[in-house]
Amino acid sequence: MVGPTTVEAGRAGSVRWVPIVRLSGVVALLGRFPALAGIDLEVGPREIVLVQGPNGAGKSTLLRLCAGLLRPESGEAEVLGHDLRVHRAAVRRSVGLLGHDTALYDDLSVVENLRFWALASRVEEAGVGPAIERLGLPSRLHDVAVGKLSAGQRRRVALAAVVVRRPQLWLLDEPHAGLDQGGRDLVDQLVTDAAHDGATVMLASHELDRTVDLATRHITVAGGTVTSDSPGGGTGGVDDVG
Amino acid sequence: MLADIRLVAAKDLRIEFRSRVTVSQVIPFAGLVLVLFGFALDANRPVLETATSGLFWVTVMFVATMAVQRSTAIETSDGARRALLLAGVEPAAVFVGKLIAVAVQLLLVELVLVAGVVVLYDARIESWGLLVSTCVVATIGIAAAGSVLGALVAGVRARETVLPILLLPILAPVLIGATRAFDDALGSVAVDGWAWLGLLAGFGVINVVLGALAYGVLLEET
Known about the structure:
The complex is a heterodimer of chains A (242) and B (222). Chain A is built from seven helices and twelve strands. Chain A has 242 residues and is of the alpha/beta class. In chain A, the strands form three sheets. Chain A has a six-stranded mixed β-sheet with strand order 8-9-10-5-11-12, with helices on both faces. A four-stranded antiparallel β-sheet of chain A has the order 4-3-6-7. A two-stranded antiparallel sheet of chain A has the order 1-2. In chain A, helix 3 (110-120) runs parallel beside helix 5 and helix 4 crosses helix 5 (151-165). Residues 1-13 of chain A have low confidence and may be disordered. Chain B has helices at 2-19, 21-41, 45-76, 80-87, 91-120, 128-152, 159-170, 172-186, 193-219. Chain A binds chain B through residues 31, 64, 67-70, 89, 92-93, 95-97, 99-108, 112, 116-117, 119-122, 145, 161, and chain B through 3-4, 7, 11, 14-15, 18-19, 74, 77-80, 82-89, 221-222.
């Protein structure tokens, strides 16, 4: 079993470890293909886990599984304390997934898109303004249809939609893709801040030069299993824990 | 649930309003079909008068296929379908919201088509109540079946061609029932239109209930 290094203080003051993600021998199929072939992984609170590996290794599938979008075919899988075999819907509300798609509606403006996703996610609409500001989207773009934005601007709006949700578990698939230098720095800051605010982050990335020092832990996925697990250079939110 | 329905329906309608596809493409397309039917049958005026109801509803079926394609594309083009699942929106609410948006667009087109058959085919409306009721009830059935099938084929590579192949046969009972009810409303054939309307209502209820139950499974990724 691949294990985490994080601990969390229990209510009574005792130290106990609460996994945010716990996968044991999990197999997940894409059609008939076993994209995850018996994966073992535990991720603790406030960790920033870099998921690396070659194309087709199962990184995106792992994130989708953790988001509650895929049903484990076999093995034990728990995310945020919910069994993924039966309570995937409960997991979904508490995670924020940034995939290759931006999940934005081209004909709606930036603000309309974010308001829609805030209301759909049952979070406060008031969070939209600060999220837009946080992502550095200038006011001239707020009422522009998303379909007219550049790829990088769309990516920022998609990230803002994740920020609005204030998820407990951030699942970011190539979050730096399509962003300029400022946008990439912003992603790094968002990830660090999320961990400091108590969230857990898993990010799949090929941009190792940026993410190696950002992550508190590196795992390598190949052939649908975790082949290596090592500590990273980042501190995540662990240093906040008393 | 009601809030989610309103949210999804308003979003789809706003997108349609912004894109102007219904006004600039779908309505002209429907008008063209009506005109071409008119050209094809005008040499035989009595046949055109008898066939008006059927031509009207065949045109609506074509338009419905386009509207459902659009409705499906809204969610599939950039992964919004997955995001709806993650947001925790009730699948039944997504279904009903999209059904309402498609139905509103179809009713708008039907309004233009009614004017079209009156002007182009010289149709006389003898029962406005039956005509309006038929439009509303049949449209709900069409939109419900279309929304379910749209979700069903959303992951299919050639969904643009698969959807009409699946949808049109399933809508055959609506086509028959709505045509008979319209025949009575236009006074072109002596039938009991209200009885056919009852049949349409039954079809609509079945489609809405089955759709609400099945939509969750259809939204899930495999």
